[in-house]
Amino acid sequence: MTTTEQQTTMTPEQAAWFADTFERIVSAVGVAVVGKANVVRLVVTTMLSGGHLLLEDVPGTGKTQLARALAAAVRTTSSRIQFTPDLLPSDVTGVSILDPRTQEFEFHRGPVFASVVLADEINRASPKTQSALLEVMEEGRVTFDGVTYDVGRPFLVIATQNPVEQAGTYRLPEAQLDRFLMKTSVGYPDHNATVSILAGAATRDRAAAVAPVITGPAVVDMIELAGTVHVDSAILDYVSRIVAETRRAENVTVGVSVRGALGLVRAAKTWAAAHGRNYVVPDDIKDLAEPVLAHRLVLDAEAEFEGATAAGVVRAVLAEIAPPTRRGGDQ
């Protein structure tokens, strides 16, 4: 390791603090989202990697509670946008209104100007409205009438879509899907978690009971700190071979993009730090490959009809490509 790497790599002490803070955030959110610790870890990892999350789930599984609980745990702002067919782009980003006193148009910020934004049933809005999120998700800013407005940091979009009811929906285009760092689902709670939820039925808003763990600026510090986790060249080679194989895989018409490969590396850095390490290991890549990569694949329509899934393709690729057993450059 070079002197520069030593100076810029997260220290073991910082890794231990990161892991402790990460788990405290997960535990705090777990007050509202019972029995879903692994899903919450993926959500927190997405936030601390500077990415966005797509939840594909049936109604009533706690998606709104998850977003509000996360915002409460990091003591920052949150908003909810219910996407409908008549929703306009300005309903998301904001609108200019004429000030009668000054006779000038003043920009009024939309609900996207929050640290945690829940875009509920995003596939019910028209492609034009969906595209209003493209710039802000990629660059963290909104351009209106030629003027750019930063949404601030941290900034996390949690979008949901219903996988069951497809009437009146618009499928998210590949360019939109590629903006999401991860895709996962909350799912129904198990028996014990359901009993616990039912026992607290009198509490309608479980997110209100979430105690703050850190502040928004501290989250930004954690995002920057996660970026200093060391990634060996052998790990980078491993990721490159994985994404290249997805492009050659049977039944796949569009494989993982370079953005997807970068997202996997960024997420693996955060995942490593969350486990108290200042370096990435192959298991970090394996743990995150499916939620980070699967939604970026486009399968052949006939293969999908026959039951092939993107998640299955990713699992097959991981089984085929051997992970590195030594550091890059070692003989």
What are the low-pLDDT stretches, counting only 5+ consecutive residues below 50? 1-7
Major β-sheet annotation: 5 strands, parallel
Question: Total strand count, please?
Answer: 11
Can you give the mean pLDDT? 87
CATH fold group of the largest domain: Rossmann fold
Overall domain count? 2
The percentage of residues in β strands lies in 5-15%
Name of the CATH superfamily of the largest domain: P-loop containing nucleotide triphosphate hydrolases
CATH class type of the largest domain: Alpha Beta
| Strand order, largest beta sheet | 2-5-8-1-9
Q: What sort of overall outline do the alpha carbons produce when their principal axes are compared?
A: globular
How do the helices and strands follow one another from N- to C-terminus?
A: HHHEHEHEEEHHEEEHEHHHEHHEHH
Instruction: Report the CATH architecture of the largest domain.
Output: 3-Layer(aba) Sandwich
| Distance between the amino and carboxyl termini | 16 Å
**Tally of alpha and pi helices:** 15
Which percent range fits the helix content? 40-55%
What does this structure look like?
- The protein is of the alpha/beta class.
- 45% of the residues lie in helices and 15% in strands.
- The strands form four sheets. A five-stranded parallel sheet has the order 2-5-8-1-9.
- Helix 12 crosses helix 13.
Which helices and strands appear, and what pairs or packs with what?
Elements: H1 3-8, H2 12-29, H3 37-48, E1 53-56, H4 63-73, E2 78-82, H5 89-93, E3 94-99, E4 104-109, E5 116-120, H6 127-130, H7 132-139, E6 141-144, E7 147-150, E8 156-161, H8 174-177, E9 182-184, H9 191-199, H10 216-226, H11 233-248, E10 252-254, H12 258-274, H13 282-293, E11 298-299, H14 301-305, H15 310-320
Parallel strand pairs: 1-8, 1-9, 2-5, 5-8
Antiparallel strand pairs: 3-4, 6-7, 10-11
